[in-house]
Amino acid sequence: MQHLFKWFLAGILCLTLSIPGHAAVRIKDITSLEGVRDNQLVGYGLVIGLLGTGDTLRNAPFTEQSLQSMLDSMGVNVRDARLRTRNVAAVVVTANFPAFVQKGTRIDVTVSSLGDASSLSGGTLIVTPLMGADGQVYAIAQGSLAVSGLSAKGDAQSLQVGTATSGLISNGAIVERALGDSFANLPNYVLQLSNPDFKTAVRVADAINAFSRARYGVKLAKERDFRSVILRKPSNITPTRFIAEIEGLAVQPDTPARVVVDERTGTVVIGSQVQISTVAVTHGNLVVRITEQPVASQPQPFSRGGETVVLPETNIEAAQSGGPLKIIGGTDLQTLVSGLNRIGLRPSGVISILQAIKTAGALQAELVIQ
To answer: Helices 333-343 & 347-359, crossing angle to 10 degrees?
Structure first.
């Protein structure tokens, strides 16, 4: 009966924590499990079957050397011959090696030209070993390329759409070596916050402990710093099921007061915690317009030795526009945005005002200018 009551409390708590509240998100969306990540693989290979759009062997000697080595391994001796083919291209093959992947699993690979090939469309990648950072071969890639770009060239005109020198082979590599799986034997698990914050780390730990007290009768989480939370796995549950239960819990992350400004595109992003102390703001623009208009100067009638010349005529106009003095300030984002909108500014004007407010000490947030 006591176990049934604990299960009932755990279900009620799970339902309560999963109800979407104000800016509440799942733990899995703001954290990642330490040690569970992809690895990078890379390899060098050849793409064949190109329709005259491959590497120029004279300009890409490594392509010719690779082609000769491949033919030698197949019993064809071409060491003393000068190859002229344009249907081969040297490429670099890259792939992401997922966590917990096993032998025989297929993964996607990206193929990119290394020489002066104009297009890889219609090509086929031949057997290419993919190595990790330790120099070990973990997968073998081969297959037909899917190229989304288009490249066409004539004597007087050329057309290019997208990138024709890079392509994708879906499920183009087979895993030949699996990484060691130590996930099941770890005594503790560490959740890494995507946006490090002390308050968010505490909220994540509190949400996990509230669930674990009702579900297992003990606290299982402890915040280590502003970036990570340590979890202790119960003994009567598998690691996969335990992490799945934790990832579904909802918390409300805390965000710093920050204003991000991109002056190149005129983009202004204001966080929900930004506050501005009450200030009076006015904004005006000075526009100076200079126009040049040539004027012909002619001599008087019946004059001797006169010449017609062209003289410049310069007109300068100056206009200054500005608005009335407005008082803005507020304790929330809506009030702040309404105050800035009342002034009627463009993005460039908003950027200038935010910088001036920060200099005046009235912007209670971090101003990030990109």
So the answer is: 120
